[in-house]
Design goal:
This protein is an alpha/beta fold. The chain folds into 2 domains: 130 residues, ATPase, nucleotide binding domain (Nucleotidyltransferase, domain 5, 2-Layer Sandwich); 183 residues, Hexokinase, domain 1. The chain has 12 helices and 16 strands. Strands 9-14-13-10-11-12 form a 6-stranded mixed sheet, with helices on both faces. The N terminus and C terminus are likely disordered.
Length: 345
């Protein structure tokens, strides 16, 4: 089949998060190995659609003018049978239903932060704002980390043919408080002890959780109801609890990022992705992030050589998903969920 854009087949690539769905019509670039060309793209609010099929159909109706039979999805969650399940997604994703609704021959699926890590081979590695560490990266593994609706992370390991990517569930690692105040917050959230995921603290909802806990500790009535309201109040120095919540959030993010940088020996750098962090960049820069990232004496020599950047999420996830698809597409039969047969591979 020939697309309206030429003899290189166009395909859909989508990055589906808890809040936004980013969708593009893509094809392989003739100018660069493993490169992709964006033919059309849009960002949708997930809450405006009854399901993913409706969201993708809205894009097809406005931006696709010839049949498209292939799609790759980057999204958080786990495949359980025919369904992608994740508490942070706005609706369940039923893969066979999606394929039939859009008339697709095949849907490829990968983790959303796995897609961002593939983008480190291209678009994501450029244009970020330097936060701490050296100005340039050395050779070695790189990390992409993002607190948003949840907390995601993946590692890109360089090598022949673009290297490879290791997806993680690092956001589910057990949170460990580093200060007396963090111990007090943790006691508020888990008075009887037990497991507390980093994601419960280091995410948009986590920031709101910290704020509410601080209000309780200080005997104050919460005045702010969204993470955006907390960050706005902190930026304006308008609410003491909001300011302290952002500081605790930034410090905990530093510990989390430093932990992963040690695990993966991330001399290739750490990329903090998401508009949420970009909006509080100055607060993040002035916070305890850098000191907490460096950890203790034995780890400092390594971690002081790791640069950290803050970058917009943008369409990097879509770009990375497209790169993954072109590398692992139908010819190799390694698409993560080949729906023509409905079998996990």
């Amino acid at each position: 089949m020939e697309s309206e854009h030429g003899d290189r087949l166009a395909f859909l690539a989508a990055d589906i998060g808890g809040t936004h769905g980013r969708v593009a019509l893509m094809r392989a670039s003739p100018d660069a190995p493993r490169g992709v060309e964006t033919l059309a793209c849009r960002v949708f609010a997930c809450a405006q659609f009854a399901g993913l099929a409706e969201l993708l159909q809205a894009f097809v109706d406005t931006d696709v003018h010839a049949p498209v039979k292939h799609c790759v999805l980057a999204c958080a969650g786990q495949v359980m049978g025919d369904e992608v399940v994740n508490d942070n997604l706005p609706w369940p994703i039923h893969l066979t239903q999606l394929r039939h609704a859009l008339g697709l021959d095949e849907v490829g699926l990968l983790n959303d932060f796995e897609a961002l890590a593939y983008a480190l081979d291209g678009s994501l590695a450029h244009g970020g704002r330097h936060l701490c560490g050296p100005d340039t990266a050395s050779a070695g593994p790189a990390l992409v980390i993002g607190p948003g609706t949840g907390l995601g992370a993946a590692a890109h390991v360089p090598g022949p043919a673009g290297g490879f990517v290791l997806p993680t569930e690092a956001g589910q690692m057990d949170f460990a408080p580093n200060s007396v105040r963090e111990r007090e917050v943790l006691a508020q959230l888990a008075p009887n002890g037990g497991y507390m995921a980093f994601e419960r603290i280091v995410s948009g909802p986590g920031l709101l959780t910290i704020y509410a806990s601080l209000c309780s500790l200080n005997g104050a009535t919460p005045q702010l109801a969204t993470p955006e309201a907390v960050t706005a109040a902190a930026l304006a120095s308008a609410d003491a609890q909001a300011m302290e919540a952002v500081e605790i959030f930034c410090a905990a993010l530093g510990s989390f990022a430093g932990n992963l940088a040690m695990v993966f020996m991330a001399t290739g750098g750490v990329y903090l992705a998401g508009g949420f962090l970009s909006s509080i960049f100055e607060l993040l820069r002035r916070s305890s992030f850098a000191e907490r990232f460096l950890h203790g004496r034995s780890a400092r020599a390594l971690l002081s050589q790791v640069p950290v950047w803050v970058t917009e999420h943008g369409l990097h996830g879509v770009q990375g998903a497209a790169q993954w698809y072109l590398r692992h597409g139908t010819s190799e039969r390694t698409v993560r969920h080949a729906l023509a047969g409905g079998v996990n591979v």
